[in-house]
Amino acid sequence: MKSFSSLVSVLIILAVVYWSFSDTKPSLSKEKTTIKTDFSIDNALFHLKNISKEAHYVGSKDHKKVQNYIVNQLQKLGLETEIQTQTAINKKWFAATTTENIIAKIKGTENGKALMLLTHYDSNPHSSIGASDAGSGVVTILEGLRAFLAKNIQPKNDIIILISDAEELGLLGAQAFVDAHKWTKDIGLVLNFEARGSGGPSYMLMETNGKNSKLLSEFMAAKPNFPAANSLMYSIYKKLPNDTDLTVFREDANINGFNFAFIGDHFDYHTAQDTYERLDRETLLHQADYFTTTLNYFSNSDLSNLNSDEDFVYVNFPFSKLLTYPFSWSFPMLLIAVVLFVVLLFFGFSLNRITIKGSFKSFIPFLVSIILCGGVSFGLWKLLLVIHPEYKDILHGFTYNAYTYIAAFVFLNLWLLFKIYKYFLKQEKTTDLLIAPIFIWLILNVFISMYLKGASFFIIPVFAALFILAIAIFLDLEEKAKRILFTIISIPTIYIFAPLIKMFPVGLGLGILFVSAIIIALVFGLMVFTFYQKKSFWMQKTVGILAIIFLGIATYNSGFSVDKKKPNSIVYVQNSDDNTAYFGTYNTTLDSYTKQIFDATSTKGSIKNADTKSKYNTRFKYHKKTENRAISSSEITTEIDTIIGSKRYLELIITPNRKINKYEFITKNKLNLQQFKVNDVLVNDGKTYNVKSGTFLVYHLGNKDKEVALSFAIDKATNLDLILNEISYDLLRNANFSINPRTEEMMPMPFVTNDAIIITKKLNL
Fold it and tell me: What is the rounded CA–CA span in Å between residue 755 and residue 57?
């Protein structure tokens, strides 16, 4: 019977884990939509197939094709469209380009604030197909608007559609709109549809300069069917440098909004594998659910004032979708929990259900479990990187077998926990084992209440554990009945934390597995009675075997294939000042593609002045000297170079002699640029642009760009030491090179300048 109750307990836990994941994502129906006013996933996929045939980054030929397709589809819906052509500069990312935003509007019946529907249509340079990021957002809006307009009901609010350009280059389309478009002042709320992978649930993240209570209340009033959100993500997101188009609206125009973004299958993010075929259809349905519910609601609600003076804690919760309560409740709830804990300790000691010695001893297994689980997970992942150095070439840290590793680490940590607690579960007063976990969780909640209030829902497991402790103290139930009852009481804890254990490594990479391990140890301590069994410990053996099995599966699937392509890189760097040339690669491990250039004579490390700006600040791992191909560089014309008073005024025109994709301007000295303009557009609103050293501008050439003009003033005593890197993505097509193409099991490494010719030279000014 004891083993049976343990089995029931495990089945309940597994069911709740499944429930917690299934509640945050719709299931794909086999029945096709026939009602014209319903969102049709088939229509959306038809659009997606058409706009994700090739990479369509800014400046590419397919960029214009995708733009024309979207414009035509909007016009078929009866909407007038506008292409906003505008040079935009984002000083946070040192990025600029001439953007081409696609804009349309649905006129409302009233003159209140407008609702903006936002996504972007450019893909990441230079090889990403962009089906998920953010083709999924484009087709969600196109098909969602079709269904909305089919109702023939005019909304109260104006609806502004912005399919922005150059998001991948530094949020530049959004910057262009906010800086230069007259409709910016009319917007009351933005709904932004994004992707950071190709599957998984879509999470709601709010952007606000104030508090979130009104935004959250309005979001819930829209009645999304599968809300996936928690205030821990909200609090962390507000502390990190944000990087979606919506951020520009919040920071520069003080406009509130919602991001709807999915992060699953992160290994496809910004790669050649971000394709139509690999986008999770259920994920697209999730985006559609957010779109239809929020559009129907916010197009007819008051958007004039969504600011509030109070923040809410919120988290996915059984039956209620989202549990919400004010931040201000956090400390009183913590205080109540502390009082209850003290009272239960008093009665526990009085009734001899808890011992002082046992309570102190309970800190040993709990603290050991936290340290050991976190330490083993951290160390094991580092060891796996040594065993599989090719993982380091997956720059975002989420391998193709990552989900298998997550499962393996979960079971490994459970095995460690069972092993640690095995001895202590044999002591007479097993109730003592709950004291340390509750105490540590209370301390954790004290820090949360001071520094990370969005995580205040961490108090909920404490109340569940206090309830369990009260039953253990005051009721003398049979062991098998207690185990099942305690599991039922722990359902909210499991429901809340199971998705978090997966979410952290999915969103932040497998290097963060140790955080999930610590969460597992923390939760296990509160649920130790659920697993308590004096004579049988079959679960320990089971999870141990599962850990070995999943580690074995992960190892077996550690290689690359047609569906799991190996990222690699070759770059040619030509220095026009000393007439030297090199090949460089960002790869840690070399393969048949990179070995055609790099061999035992290659030099480890980077090339001077040749590391271009990248997402993860990645540097060349190997370089090798090669023949200088004498590729012509851009023409630089000094239009103005004059001194007036204490200032030196310069204007430069850079004109490409071949197809150039981007220019990088680098300073070796500290610069204070005044009245800095790029293509006659002021940088930093005309304020002094201070640069310590390094890259101070990355200009991506769009289809409209024929040249780039820079003008600025500096102190006349300033010593200019500037370098220009001009970059083209045509290494594999250039007639000066004969590099064998990649096999089907390979793809260009994302997040770095790749398949590129880089010509670097000093600017003689």
Answer: 15
Q: Which residues on neighbouring strands pair with residue 374, listed in sequence order?
A: none
Q: What's the half-sphere exposure (Cβ side, CA atoms, 13 Å) at 507?
A: 17
> What span, in angstroms and rounded, lies between the C-alpha atoms of 95 and 67?
21
Q: How far apart are CA 269 and CA 134, in angstroms?
A: 10
Tens of pLDDT, residues 14-65: 999 999 999 999 988 776 766 889 999 999 999 999 999 999 999 999 999 9
The pLDDT of residue 764 is 86
Total Cβ atoms within 10 A of residue 627: 7
Eight-state DSSP code of residue 492: H
Phi-psi region of 449 (alpha: psi -120 to 50; beta: other; left: phi over 0): alpha
This prediction has a pTM of 0.94
Q: How many CA atoms lie within 13 A of 301 on its CB side?
A: 18
Residue 300: C-alpha distances to residues 37, 38, 183, 595 (Å): 17, 18, 19, 61
Nearest to 427 by CA among 490, 355, 495: 355
Q: Which of 516, 525, 266 is nearest to 402 (CA)?
A: 266
Q: Which of 295, 307, 257, 288 is nearest to 156 (CA)?
A: 295
User: Which has the closest alpha carbon to 83: 704, 698, 662?
Assistant: 704
- Please report where in the chains the tokens 């796996």 appear, as a residue: 384
CA angle 763/652/650 to nearest 5° reads 95
Instruction: For 3-67, give the DSSP string.
Output: HHHHHHHHHHHHHHHHHHHHTTSPPPPSSPP--TTS--HHHHHHHHHHH-SS---TTSHHHHHHH
Q: Which tokens go with 325?
A: 């309560």
Cβ distance 119 to 262 under 8 Å? no
Q: Tens digits of per-residue pLDDT, 194-203?
A: 999 999 999 9
CA distance 196 to 263: 5
User: Where would I find the beta strands (DSSP E) of 619-755?
Assistant: 622-625, 635-644, 647-655, 662-667, 671-678, 681-682, 689-691, 694-700, 708-715, 722-728, 746-748
Print burial letters for 403-416: b (CB count within 10 Å at least 16), e (below 16): bbbbbbbbbbbbbb
| Closest by CA position to 608, among listed 569, 663, 666, 567 | 666
Statement: residue 530 has pLDDT above 80 = no
Q: CB of 359 within 8 A of CB of 436? A: yes
Asked if residue 134 has a cis previous peptide bond (ω within 30° of 0), the answer is yes
Taking the CA atoms of 94, 99, 102 and 107 in sequence, report the sign of the dihedral they define. positive
Whether 174 and 92 have beta carbons less than 8 Å apart is answered as no
Amino acid at 629: R
